[in-house]
User: Which sequence fits this backbone?
């Protein structure tokens, strides 16, 4: 979160604290001074993803191959200068930050509603000033970096603390990010990702020392300064009275500054006159309206102390609670130490997805997706994939093994969920003859029978355990795509034959297209429903990641990535073509070799759905773009009597380039 307004304050009021630096020169100085240690920059990846995502299109679900190419260019620029990068990602949302997380999610809901209203009105993507990152971008960025040879770290506590600690302990040349908390931690220099010029490796370095000089403070004052301005521990709402008192007595009040700037100057002036001692901190705690929790300031200051650091505000004999990450503060749900340890190691190395969070404290969250709250035909992705998650929870928590199975706490954002408390979700056993294999078998056992069990358990999470033979005949990314698409068509009864055609054409036409080709694709207009479906599909890929992690990796994680199976603009094109009633030739870009694979994949989905009593109807929408803001009821005009469903002859063997070489499924 950082401290509201501090970054802008430094730029406006303390320009001497903003130094333009050449990272190549800094790296060279480091090599001279430390010849045995290569220059390293630790990257707060969560603060960087919005700056890394530079493809022009962002509403359609993500331009994943373009994004992957951008990340590769980013890494190469630093490698060329001999600078190593270490990437950190938030692995948890700590309880102290939950209220702030909820507040941001509810604000994002309003931003997303405005985006959809713009798309419906103008039939195009809004400008960059309304930009939000594509759904699940941070999740897939971790795996993209691994694919590009990096070693991203997924944290066990809030990332900013671990980033600052790593930078200090490993003598890094700096931290790259966009979070004013890095001005408060006493660690290595803080570089701005927002100001980074990649081709020259020049950016702005924010100097704590110069900030202190401008404010009349010392470095030891900064943690208290941050707390008295409001941060993740001390809410701003408790500080209004204190700010008023500071403003009244401040000699620095300037009418040309906004109120927040004057508050920052006034608080700094007040602190500069307070002796640095524990008794001063206790006096402040008594003075502030902290309610029943009189230790807020203490905990706030302590949260900025890195391992081995002391503060005059806090006695030496008080333990720093930041040293004890998530699994040590709560009783883990998983009692098998070997499984728990493996889950933890995979979590840190960014090899699994959400598994450690479930096994450690039974709580997970999912941020906003680009979903249209006015479209009542498509449920929120959180609800669409909940049945699959319930099966995954059962696999992980072994709900069928007797005894009470714990409920899982979900903080998932969807329309109608006020996020006032977590939803308590019951694990549900997947339907597998003979029962679900235990976790030790799925994770540790070896041999072809176990490989089959892993694959079958994975499919059972999506109600497709009867389709194993057909899916194993496909290339792994296509099999995963079909698994997700079939599940989606089963769960959402309003999805049509035209939607199915668009998705199948997407996976076939995407193969072989380069990032540059996809970047060059131009859309005449943007359809809001296709935007919504794109976000739902990409969130589905994260559900595949979760199931794959839980079931012992029947697929390689690389085969479940969006750059293998999805492109936002290409899906928009296929969706609009399909609903316009274009020919198969146009839909498949004149490539006759795709006709048979198209019919086969479509037949597979239709047959699997029919087995579950779901017939996919034709409902072409033409160019009838949704422009209203009111919630819609299903419109019967989409029903077409001349072609109500599609049940073509089914081909058992998936021929063409989709055929997979006979080989066992590779583990991760």
Assistant:
């Amino acid at each position: 979160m950082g401290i509201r307004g501090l970054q802008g304050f430094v730029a406006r009021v303390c320009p001497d604290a903003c130094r333009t630096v050449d990272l190549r020169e800094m790296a060279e100085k480091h090599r001279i001074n430390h010849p045995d240690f290569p220059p390293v920059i630790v990257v707060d990846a969560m603060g960087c993803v919005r700056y890394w995502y530079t493809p022009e299109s962002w509403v359609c679900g993500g331009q994943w191959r373009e994004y992957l190419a951008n990340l590769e260019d980013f890494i190469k620029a630093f490698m060329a200068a001999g600078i190593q990068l270490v990437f950190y990602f938030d692995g948890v949302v700590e309880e102290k930050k939950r209220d702030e997380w909820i507040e941001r999610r509810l604000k994002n809901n309003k931003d997303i509603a405005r985006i959809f209203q713009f798309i419906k009105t103008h039939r195009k993507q809004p400008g960059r000033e309304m930009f939000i990152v594509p759904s699940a971008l941070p999740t897939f960025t971790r795996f993209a970096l691994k694919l590009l040879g990096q070693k991203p770290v997924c944290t066990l506590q809030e990332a900013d603390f671990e980033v600052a600690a790593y930078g200090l302990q490993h003598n890094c040349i700096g931290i790259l990010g966009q979070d004013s908390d890095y001005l408060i931690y006493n660690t290595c220099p803080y570089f701005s990702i927002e100001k980074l010029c990649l081709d020259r490796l020049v950016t702005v370095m924010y100097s704590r020392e110069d900030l202190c000089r401008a404010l009349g403070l010392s470095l030891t004052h900064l943690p208290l300064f941050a707390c008295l301005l409001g941060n993740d521990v001390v809410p701003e709402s408790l500080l209004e009275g204190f700010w008023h008192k500071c403003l009244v007595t401040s000699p620095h009040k300037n009418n040309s500054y906004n109120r927040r700037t004057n508050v920052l100057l006034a608080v700094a002036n007040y602190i500069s006159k307070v002796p640095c001692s524990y008794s001063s901190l206790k006096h402040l705690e008594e003075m502030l309206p902290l309610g029943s929790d009189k230790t807020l300031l203490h905990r706030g200051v302590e949260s900025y102390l890195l391992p081995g650091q002391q503060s005059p505000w806090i006695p030496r004999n008080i333990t720093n609670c930041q040293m004890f990450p998530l699994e040590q503060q709560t009783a883990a749900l998983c009692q098998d130490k070997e499984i728990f340890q493996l889950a933890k190691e995979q979590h840190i190395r960014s090899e699994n997805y959400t598994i450690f969070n479930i096994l450690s404290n039974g709580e997970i969250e999912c941020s906003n997706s680009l979903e249209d709250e006015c479209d009542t035909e498509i449920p929120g992705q959180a609800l669409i994939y909940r049945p699959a998650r319930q099966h995954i929870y059962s696999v992980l928590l072994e709900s069928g093994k007797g005894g009470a199975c714990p409920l899982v706490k979900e903080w998932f954002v969807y329309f109608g969920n006020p996020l006032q408390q977590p939803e308590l979700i019951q694990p549900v056993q997947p339907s597998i003859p003979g029962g679900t294999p235990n976790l030790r078998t799925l994770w540790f056992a070896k041999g072809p029978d176990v490989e089959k069990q892993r694959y079958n358990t994975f499919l059972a999470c999506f109600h497709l355990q009867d389709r194993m033979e057909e899916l194993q005949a496909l290339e792994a990314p296509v099999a995963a795509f079909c698994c997700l698409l079939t599940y989606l068509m089963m769960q959402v009864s309003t999805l049509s034959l035209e939607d199915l055609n668009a998705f199948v054409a997407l996976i076939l036409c995407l193969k072989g297209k380069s990032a540059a080709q996809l970047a060059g694709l131009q859309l005449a207009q943007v359809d809001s429903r296709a935007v919504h479906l794109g976000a739902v599909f990409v969130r589905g890929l994260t559900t595949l990641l979760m199931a794959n992690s839980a079931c012992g990796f029947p697929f390689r994680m690389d085969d479940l990535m969006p750059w293998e199976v999805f492109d936002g603009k290409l899906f928009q094109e296929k969706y609009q073509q399909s609903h316009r009633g274009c020919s198969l030739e146009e839909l498949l870009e004149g490539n006759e070799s795709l006709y048979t694979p198209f019919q086969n994949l479509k037949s597979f989905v239709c047959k699997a759905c029919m087995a579950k009593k779901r017939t996919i109807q034709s409902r072409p929408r033409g160019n009838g773009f949704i422009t209203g803001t009111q919630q819609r009821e299903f419109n019967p005009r989409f029903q077409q009597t001349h072609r109500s469903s599609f049940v073509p002859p089914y081909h058992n063997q998936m021929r063409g380039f989709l055929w997979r070489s006979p080989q066992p499924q590779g583990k991760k």
